[in-house]
Amino acid sequence: MAASVRDIIRACEKGLAADYRRIEEIALHNQEKVLQALWQARLGDHHFKGSTGYGYDDLGRETLDKVYAAVCGAEAALVRSQFVSGTHAIGAALFGNLRSGDELISASGTPYDTLRALIGNIEDPAPGTLRDMGISYREVPLTSSGELDLPACLAAISPATKMLLLQRSRGYSWRPALSIAVLTDFISKIKAEYPQLIVFVDNCYGEFVEGEEPSQVGADLMAGSLIKNPGGGLALGGGYIVGRAALIAKAAQRLTMPGLGSHMGATAGEWLRLAFQGLYLAPHVVGQALKGMHLWAAVLATLGFQVSPPPHGARADIIQAVRLDSREQLLALAVAVQRAAPVDAHLTPLPWHMPGYEDEIIMAAGAFIQGSSLELSMDAPLREPYTAYLQGGLTLEHSHIALEKVLSNLKKT
Length: 413
Description:
With 413 residues, the chain is of the alpha/beta class. Helix content is 39%, strand content 14%. A seven-stranded mixed sheet has the order 1-7-6-5-4-2-3, sandwiched between helices. Helix 2 (17-40) packs across helix 3 and helix 4 (86-97) crosses helix 8 (245-255).
């Protein structure tokens, strides 16, 4: 690797000292918050034993619920290995709390692909989707600058509206992620007019990025994936929902069955130990990922690429978007990220039609946990404008090394 590339990376990093310090302060605050929850739960080795079969009286699972609720400032939590993805956790919360005749409004514009599949097509809703179950759906577009449109949202609410959905992360879009300050202001103003509405935040990619979670600033429900931020790079899978106890109980009945709720669901093997340990590590690991994304933004912007967030920009998720000049350049970036991975670095990522997505998707994710996006990874829909979405990085050092490989590969395109 040419010394000039390393010089660019090092020069950019020198300018990030203040950003790094801010991230470290947030990580320290969040680390204390997690430790306080673990101390309060009197976590012990016996909580890691797990269960088999039906999973009745799984003390570790029940304690993990309590810890998540405490960390997120919520009444209750449902943290389960049985959630196959963040979308599955979101779906359980939606189907558990919405009924035929209710209306769901997305207050943050069009959600990402897999959630659109869950909602269902308006003309021909697929079996089992929200629309197929008689639940209506509308969207309130974001403003031209990518911000929540409070007046339009207030005007859209009708007597049938039961829930407002807010997607915190950018998804496959150029708009900024929703910060805690933005969510606090928006939710408080919605609740002042419509206190009965359920405000649900899809918190994927946002956990521990700031000092508070949406459930601490007025959100009634919040959900996410354990192979993203809160799993700390260790959780083998699963997802979580936190929020008001009555709403969590309904989501639990959707995950299992009415009458069974949160009382069942075995946690076999090492899942509990790794879920607890991953949560303990998450504030630090998310901080490492954020530092890495700041570095990617600074270096790529220096080289003339369009990036969002911009260098030194405020962040509310761990995603870094970058615009590429062509399909070939986008594919080259994916290959370079894969070549820098600790796992499957010898493989070449290829575009494919992933279930739940409208366009072909290219993913570079040589990860210890399959599909983990807290580990350094990249994915992108193959549509114009060609935009890659980088995320994660368990260590800042990995971002350094990966950047060198990426810059070398992009020069060849």
